[in-house]
Amino acid sequence: MADHLARRGFLLGAASLALVPIAADPAVAADELPGFPAAVTPYRSGYRNWVGEITADGLWACAPADPDQVVAVVNWAWQQGWTVRARGSAHGWSPLTLTAGTEPGARVLIVDTAPQLTGLALESTGPASVRAGTGVTLEALLTYLERHGLGVTAAPAPGDLTLGGALAVDAHGTAVPAAGETAVPGHTYGSLSNLVLRLTAVVWDEDSGAYVLRTFHRDEADCAALLTHLGRSLVVEVVLRVGANSNLRCVSRTDISAAELFAAPGGGSGGRTFASFLDEAGRVETIWFAFTESPWLKVWSVAPTRPLASRHVSSPYNYPFSDNVPTLVADLVGRILSDGAWYLAPVLGNAQLDVAALGLVATLSADIWGPSKNTLLYVRPTTLRVTANGYAVLTSRAQVQRVIAEFTGFYRERLAAYAASGRFPVNGTVEIRATGLDRPGDADSAGARAPLLSALRPVDGHPEWDTAVWLDVLTLPGTPYAEEFFRELEQFLLATYDGGHALTRVEWSKGWAYTDTAGWSDEEVIGTAVPASYGDTVWREAVGTLDRLDPHGVFGNAFLDRLLR
Predict the structure, then answer these.
(1) Going residue by residue through the chain (565 aa), what tens digit of pLDDT does each one get?
(2) Cα 13 from chain centre
């Protein structure tokens, strides 16, 4: 019993770790932060990213009450030779906020946006738009919109993401037009960044010799770089185009084999393929547990009235068996991590599939219906925390099934080869989604420009590429051979989808640029492959704009300096 409790305690402790601000002695603060803005109270804080692979202790932080206080803090940092890193929920993997090895006492100031930069107000109702502080969570934003009969087509599954963090990395959900479906005004099938009408950021002003607030409209060239800025700027407020809310039905099933769902096009599989469900509903996700043959398939469809078989849901997070680590899964994960029993990956994968299949029935969540927020948001901070790689493969709608078949075939072959040699690099899932691209016309703003650094930016010369297939592979942190395995997957994607019939771009918030031992470390990928996936002109424009708006590098870190050069 004690061993069982220890394992669950380890898992739940990792999942619920809260880095509570620690009040600072005013005399110490005055000594270490001379001249810090009097209206803003500094405090000590640690930092921990989603899975705990990047941590830091003893950093100075603050939570400005409004954008003017943000400007005061940034100007203090510039004058003192500090850098500023905005923090929302820290629900990410990549070193865009802090880099590994950031020492206590480093001249890095964390600006917490979530406590106070959370204002919400409707700007207009026809067409509709909402003004939002970038510290507001997606759950709070979508709840506010829902009260006014408004919503979005798709959103990331975790409701704790802050809006600013989501926009910095072109966060997305899963949605393309179903067969015969037309876009609703105020909606996009691309990323949330594509809904921005205007934004207010802290930027350098040459005339005043200081950092100031400036509002950028969607038709301005500089705005295109700020729409997905990767943490290389600080946006404090945005105005988003939104549209009428929809009721969505979400049907889950685990009775279709991976062989059928991911079959090569024209292979006579019977037709129940990923692409067929895209045509039917437009909103599809598969969660394929390692070493299993039946993925968890989710299909959302627009349903103005409740289907007879569906359960009406009035709140989000309707998969408690997924959001809270079940005892069986907790015990297996605890044994894998504490005992190094990595060979239990197949047992864990099958246990997770069994829990999902039984949980869908036990909680009556296999067929749910309600306002969009209640089916789109389904990941809580209490879920099992795993590391993840991530890529978007841009292609034509007609090629989606081909891409999925090629990728899953390669993944399956390599996983089997590793297992045959006694190596088990993946003990989590493969997650597959599909979205449209960031077509600027979706924002319904004259002269709108596409985000320069969104993975969903349309590719010049390829108007037929209208879809992105998102591919993520998840595993427990510290799993042996994971980086080597992820490197093989990455090299396959970059070589196979190199701009011919499709193009690979990295998912900014996840893992990429793998060597055999670490992510975000392959200099060839960082310095050549990633910029090339956007094109030299686009990349140089984005980097040049971000440098010009922050010439002193206040919003930089060591990793961003390597990437954005």
Answers:
(1) 334 434 444 444 443 444 678 888 888 989 999 999 999 999 999 999 999 999 999 999 999 999 999 999 999 999 999 999 999 999 999 999 999 999 988 999 999 999 999 999 999 877 899 999 999 999 999 999 999 999 999 999 999 999 999 999 999 999 999 999 998 999 999 999 999 999 999 999 999 999 999 999 999 999 999 999 999 999 999 999 999 999 999 999 999 999 999 999 986 556 899 999 999 999 999 999 999 999 999 999 999 999 999 999 999 999 999 988 889 899 999 999 999 999 999 999 999 999 999 999 999 999 999 999 999 999 999 999 999 999 999 999 999 999 999 999 999 999 999 999 999 999 999 999 999 999 999 988 889 999 999 999 999 999 999 999 999 999 999 999 999 999 999 999 999 999 999 999 999 999 999 999 999 999 999 999 999 999 999 999 999 999 999 999 999 999 999 999 9
(2) 23
Enzyme catalytic residues: 91, 285, 431, 433
Q: What is the pTM of this model?
A: 0.95
DSSP 468-532: EEEEEEEE-TT-TTHHHHHHHHHHHHHHHSBSSS-EEEE-TTSB-S--SS-SS--HHIIIIIHHH
- In degrees, to the nearest 5, what angle opens at C-alpha 501 toward C-alphas 495 and 507? 60
Buried b (16+ CB within 10 A) or exposed e, 514-549: bbeeebbebeebbeebbbebbeeebbebbbebbbeb
Close Cβ partners of 94 (under 8 Å, ≥ 6 residues apart) = 508, 509, 510, 511, 512, 519, 520, 559
DSSP 293: S
For 249, the 3-state DSSP assignment is strand
Residue 44, number of CB atoms within 10 A of its CB: 19
